[in-house]
Amino acid sequence: MATEVFDKQKTIDLRKKYIGPSCKVFFNHDPIKIIRARGQYMYSEKDEQYLDCINNVAHVGHSHPEVVSAGTKQMELLNTNSRFLHDNLVHYAQRLQATLPEKLSVCYFVNSGSEANDLALRLAWQHTGHKDIITLDNAYHGHVSSLIDISPYKFHQLGQTEQSQHVHVAPSPDIYRGKFREDHPDPATAYADEVRDIIEKAHAKGHKIAAFIAESLQSCGGQVIPPVGYFQKVAHHVRNVGGVFIADEVQVGFGRVGSHFWAFQLQGDDFVPDIVTMGKPIGNGHPMSCVVTTREVAESFMSSGMEYFNTFGGNPVSCAIGMAVLDVIEKEDLQGNALRVGKYLMELLEKLKEKHPLIGDTRGCGLFVGVDLVKDRLKRTPATAEAQDVIYRLKDQKILLSADGPHRNVLKFKPPMCFSREDADLAVGKIDHILTDLEKALGLCISDAPDLESVPNKRKNSFKEIVHGFQSNSVSNSNTNTRTNKKQRT
Ligand SMILES: Cc1ncc(COP(=O)(O)O)c(C=O)c1O
């Protein structure tokens, strides 16, 4: 059905003329035009098929017929706002709640991840009566003003002077290139103690903490998997001073991690956030999102006396779509698929790491996987230009992958959840060839790379022990020159 109205160059020209220049395209030097998509595949105006390893929004697969049909049917019947009683709203809330710990029982439906996080901050401020927010370094939580303030990924680009005095940045609990690494005896406690110290310093200046906010796994921050127990310890420190814990599941929720429906559950059954925000995959591309919290927090929000109204949030069409997404995840066992294919993908990548000095670390859970490219295995120097080169070359071979993290050197897999073993074989096979080429050009071979065990002070407790249940490994390597440095965040 989808057809081209303009030829590609005309689309580019019109975009330049009418669309804000800060709205970037993927592959800036040679953008692609996509006119239709199905499952994990996207198709260009020339009907070329691309394997999509980028779109975690098309969670159950692009244009899933059941999701499309649920939306169309409800749109034909009624779409209106939540001030009218409608069963879709309560039915969907009930279904979503069933995926969460009992305590998280009250939903607010909104339209985007940013709206969800902004509302989460309002809930925290109202509930605690405090103002300050602790966020993680390299975090991204959304594009509205309140969230740029708590998103170092963004505000660092504006210069440090832009940081609000009510925002405190804790180190990212990154055990590969963070402050405390896999050789630390207890990185969970060490990183949580950093949060405790921030709280103490803030208190000394008369500030009070309203909330700690973190993605359950940092995505833009470089596919970071926090050590198990970190969230419990942080929650303890934050709740001790009257604050709340906000888990941002906008990227990583809805079964992506395979072993659990929510990524915060990777921390253990003894951890329950006070507020959870959801977005992207929730509507498989339909703009909708949700904040779920405890009855207690919701009552505090109510006590302000102000109504919360959202014109589109929780409308019958969005709720129908949200329910269809949950149905498909269940019917097609997509969480199970994420677990199985994710494990297979990690195995392939680990084999690749044995062969390629450019790979410093592979880490992931389910279909949330990162490949950290390094120029030097010992120093873990980010191979930024090489990562950009890899994603451009992959794109030329019809595989869509992105690179992110503070150094833009982490290849990110976050494909639709119907991603198959064959897709993993194809993508990893192509990466293998590209890395071989790059390393040949750079004069690198695996023997240049020191073995981890020979690194002084390196303990044998691997990431596996620290972030149990995940596969992750680290190595490091020698020098490369940068071929190109295509400055694009994808
Ligand atoms: C972790 C996280 N939170 C929130 C957002 C904001 O979501 P949206 O773009 O739907 O407003 C994003 C978007 O990339 C995100 O990655």
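qc> The domain at 65-331 is CATH 3.40.640.10 (Aspartate Aminotransferase; domain 2).
qc> done
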